């Protein structure tokens, strides 16, 4: 079978999308007049930030040096740690992977993570060293680092994706070294759902990899997770535009349109089979993703709630690595609590909702899942740990017996001269040292246990700062540990604002509280009465700022006269302010919620 399914994996900014461009040009998949840099990065956000956010599939037709014609299905994957789930999904649809490494940067954290994941899944790995045209490139040292990581001395191809040098040789290696897909055209249909998106006119468009059999228009298909059945209306290939075809056969990758309007019918990793037939077992699919960072999304205009619900549902089709559920806030009204893989993931989803669906949002302070042991008020029930993703849902401080926070196993790869600054940063973030390993005479891998709450906000930026951009970082969940965490409540005019509450370590509570109270004082406009901005921990006020009352000059109309007249006006004003203070409510501007996020990030 002359089909090869492969993906390109690498650390961020090592040239995955550029190499995909060269492959597209070599195979003439896209005419030169339509070609542009990072062709597969079609999303506006991807082109702005210079990163791949969504894995992209493209079908290429290539005539090899041996005169044979091949179908090459390529998936270009993201490189950032927050999008690792996208990478794992792409790998599950392939038999091989090109492991791309920058010759000037060497092996980095995500190279390590992706390489090990590909080995675990049993993929054939082709190491490729990119950017050999740079003056400070060191391909020999890079190749040794790759061997050290893979524990396998496989010769690496040396290329320059920018000028195309060596790209054709890599395609030839793909054909020779990556095995063809295993499957039988004689067996009943069995296909893997590896991606999808919503089209206004066509409904849900499913990206699928055919394992056995074939699918064509008019065929009735069923989904193993829900058992629902639909008639296929259209099938075709991704080039990367949708090109209509007659059928998708064993080993091929393509799309299916079956008039599905309910976005909740589709589950990533689901198995498609022909209606009325039985399959021995569904495909393994994907492991359920566990988000690590949570935040509340609320529409600025309450009338946008329904539109926000639809927008989140449609985005969840293209990115199933975040989850969501409805929630209500006294301060912000109706909204949703979303779980993400990291802070960049949160930022990308928020921007996509605001840009693609034109819904202005308020995002609350991000936080992780805490496990809280609380006293029960019934003698018949035993105390047990409950999972809390929203600070507003924390039990009363008097009932909290223990709080456990998530720790991660972090891998940092950096040049030796920057290790002192990195070690100091890890110590500041309450890290626990595990080991240091040298991968060359100038580069080391450092392993640490770190609290997840310390790294989801500003850790990545600070790491880049202390290492001048040379350190790379990757992490995976490890375990929960008991920590001295406290809930900080923000009181405005004596009332707790649930959306401004957050969790922090006790040692940081005073400094964070003072900073937030000072910031809110500058952001909340003055009212006709005095407003107290307070931070409370465990029922005790630990920080306070006062916003002075806005004063109207009631004496402006007095052009002289007896002092008693002026005093009477001032007393009346004083009494009016006293009543306002008792009855008045404080309006909180949107910037106040944004500022809390910036404070947490140390900006």
Give a concise summary.
The chain is an alpha+beta fold and 603 residues long. The protein contains 14 helices and 31 strands. Helix 12 (506-523) runs antiparallel to helix 14.
> Mean pLDDT, as a whole number?
82
CATH architecture designation of the largest domain = 3-Layer(aba) Sandwich
Total strands: the figure is: 31
Low-confidence parts, pLDDT < 50 over ≥5 residues?
A: 598-603
Q: How much beta, percentage-wise?
A: 25-35%
Kindly report how far apart the N and C termini lie: 56 Å
State the secondary-structure class: alpha+beta
Give the arrangement of secondary structure elements.
Layout: E1 3-10, H1 16-26, H2 44-49, E2 56-63, E3 69-76, H3 84-92, E4 96-102, H4 109-120, E5 124-130, H5 139-150, E6 157-158, H6 167-177, E7 190-199, E8 203-212, E9 215-216, E10 220-223, E11 229-231, E12 234-238, E13 242-245, E14 247-248, E15 253-257, E16 271-274, E17 293-299, H7 305-318, E18 323-329, E19 333-340, H8 343-356, E20 361-363, E21 370-374, E22 385-388, E23 400-415, H9 419-428, E24 432-438, E25 443-451, H10 452-455, H11 459-466, E26 472-482, E27 485-492, E28 495-496, E29 502-505, H12 506-523, E30 531-537, E31 540-547, H13 563-583, H14 590-600
Parallel strand pairs: 1-3, 1-4, 4-5, 5-6
Antiparallel strand pairs: 2-3, 7-8, 7-16, 8-15, 9-14, 10-11, 10-16, 12-13, 12-15, 17-19, 17-20, 18-19, 21-22, 21-23, 23-25, 23-26, 24-25, 27-28, 27-29, 27-30, 30-31
Helix pairs in contact: 12-14
């Amino acid at each position: 079978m002359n089909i090869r399914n492969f993906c390109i994996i690498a650390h961020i900014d090592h040239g995955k999308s550029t190499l995909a461009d060269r492959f597209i040009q070599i195979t003439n998949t896209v005419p030169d007049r339509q070609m542009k840099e990072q062709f597969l990065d079609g999303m506006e956000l991807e082109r702005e930030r210079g990163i791949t956010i969504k894995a992209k599939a493209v079908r290429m037709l290539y005539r090899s040096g041996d005169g044979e014609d091949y179908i090459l299905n390529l998936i270009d994957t993201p490189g950032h740690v927050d999008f690792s789930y996208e990478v794992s999904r792409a790998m599950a649809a392939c038999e091989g992977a090109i492991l791309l490494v920058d010759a000037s940067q060497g092996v980095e954290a995500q190279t390590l993570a992706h390489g090990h994941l590909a080995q675990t899944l049993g993929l054939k790995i082709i190491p490729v060293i990119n950017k050999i045209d740079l003056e400070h490139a060191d391909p020999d040292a890079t190749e040794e680092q790759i061997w050290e990581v893979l524990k396998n001395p496989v010769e690496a191809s040396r290329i320059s994706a920018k000028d195309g040098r060596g790209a054709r040789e890599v395609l030839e290696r793909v054909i020779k070294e990556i095995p063809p897909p295993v499957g039988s055209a004689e067996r009943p249909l069995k296909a893997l759902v590896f991606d999808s998106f919503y089209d206004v006119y066509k409904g849900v468009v499913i990206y699928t990899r055919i394992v056995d059999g074939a699918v064509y228009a008019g065929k009735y298909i069923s989904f193993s997770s829900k058992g629902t059945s639909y008639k296929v209306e259209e099938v075709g290939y991704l080039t990367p535009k949708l090109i209509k075809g007659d059928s998708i056969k064993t080993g091929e990758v393509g799309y299916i349109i079956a008039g599905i309007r309910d976005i909740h019918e589709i589950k990533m990793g689901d198995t498609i089979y022909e209606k009325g037939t039985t399959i021995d077992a569904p495909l393994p699919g994907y492991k359920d993703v566990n988000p690590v960072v949570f935040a509340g999304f609320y529409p600025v205009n309450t009338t946008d709630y329904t539109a926000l619900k639809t927008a989140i549902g449609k985005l969840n089709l293209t990115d199933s690595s975040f989850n969501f559920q409805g929630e209500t806030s006294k301060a912000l009204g109706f909204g949703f609590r979303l779980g993400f893989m990291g802070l960049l993931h949160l930022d990308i989803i928020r921007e996509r909702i605001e840009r693609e669906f034109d819904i202005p949002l308020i995002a609350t302070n991000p936080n992780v899942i805490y496990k809280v042991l609380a006293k029960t008020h019934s003698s018949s029930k035993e105390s047990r740990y409950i999972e809390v993703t929203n600070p507003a849902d924390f039990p009363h401080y008097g009932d909290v017996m223990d709080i456990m926070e998530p720790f991660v196993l972090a891998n940092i790869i950096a040049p030796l001269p920057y290790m002192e600054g990195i070690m100091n940063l890890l110590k500041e973030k309450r890290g626990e040292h595990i080991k240091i390993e040298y991968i060359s005479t100038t580069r080391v891998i450092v392993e640490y246990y770190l609290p997840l709450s310390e790294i989801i906000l500003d850790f990545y930026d600070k790491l880049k700062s202390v290492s001048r951009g040379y350190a790379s970082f990757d992490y995976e969940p490890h375990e929960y540990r008991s920590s001295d965490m406290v809930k900080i409540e923000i009181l405005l005019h004596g009332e707790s604002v649930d959306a401004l509450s957050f969790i922090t370590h006790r040692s940081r509570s005073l400094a964070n509280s003072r900073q937030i109270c000072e910031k809110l004082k500058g952001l909340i406009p003055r009212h006709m009465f005095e407003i107290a901005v307070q931070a409370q921990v465990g029922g005790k006020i630990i920080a306070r700022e006062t916003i002075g009352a806005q004063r109207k000059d009631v004496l402006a109309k007095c052009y002289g006269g007896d002092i008693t007249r002026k005093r009477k006006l001032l007393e009346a004003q004083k009494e009016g302010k006293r009543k306002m203070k008792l009855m008045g409510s404080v309006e909180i501007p949107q910037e106040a919620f944004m500022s809390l996020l910036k404070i947490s990030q140390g900006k």
